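Table 4 source record.
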Amino acid sequence: MELLRLSKAAKRLGVHPVTLRLWADSGKIPVTWVGRERRFSSVDVEAMKVPAGGGDRVRLEGLYVRVS
């Protein structure tokens, strides 16, 4: 098990570092503190990955039409 820094873990997940920080604050992903830095277990990061096809995520679309 490797402990990843915030930026490297975010890159592996394909999300912005701020998003990963919010997930850690809300408890969505476990975090280990090393001094003043958050570190993420490579095992936990791999478990959070979404399959390339998007998995079973539902895509919502909206349409806005304005007629003058």
